[in-house]
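Example record

The entry below shows one chain as it appears in the dataset: sequence first, then structure tokens.
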Amino acid sequence: MAQLIRSDLEERLKAWHGEEWHTTRGRVIRDIVYAVDTGLVTTVSFIAGISVSLVTKNRIIFAGLVQVIAGALAIFFGSYISTKAQKHFFENQIEREKKEIDTDPQKETQEIREIFAGMGFVREEQEIAVKRITADKQRWLKFMVQEEIGISPGLIDNPFEIGIISSGSFLLGALPAIFPFFLFKDVSAALFTSAASVLLFLFILGVLKTRITKMHWLFSGLETLLIGAASCGSGFLLGRIAVKYFH
């Protein structure tokens, strides 16, 4: 169904701007940043919380790995299900538009006129556009899908692909938080290094985002760092409160 709305838009964007991330699939950065940040924040918060009661390094590593695996699976299935639901919605909208073109072409033709009228085209120009667009059913469908119901080419993602990208990004984010516990014997030293690694990674993540957002690298890095640090601190505080309550 996705092939129904393919167009030359992504190739034009790439040709005009000369960068892959100017294509419509650039929005995938949202899923990557979200999953990496979630992996960082949830893992370090969890480890910091349990380190109070589990004491020994091996137990902390085991509990941390369980949390990381559970989080990666949750991110995968959450992304898969939500992307699949969106995909079905878009495909149903496209199919409905296709049926409307087949069953009521006069109404759909008038909608083309109204779209161009809204853009400031006069009657004669509208008719030229109508004639050109309706001469080919595929072109007609692509136009109506994009201009009438707002589904741009490239918006229909592969659920499995998005799930893999999101869970992989989560694991990437979790790595700086748990890896120091494999290097240091002392739990306090490992926890300190873990927290420092996460803060550094958050700053780097913010800087890397500027390749897409075009924000100033320092502002983006500090913004991501501060928001992530506040989230980590909140998670750690809640963990300490829970530990005190159950003890």
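Notes for this example: The radius of gyration is 25 Å. Residues 57-103 form the longest helix (47 residues).
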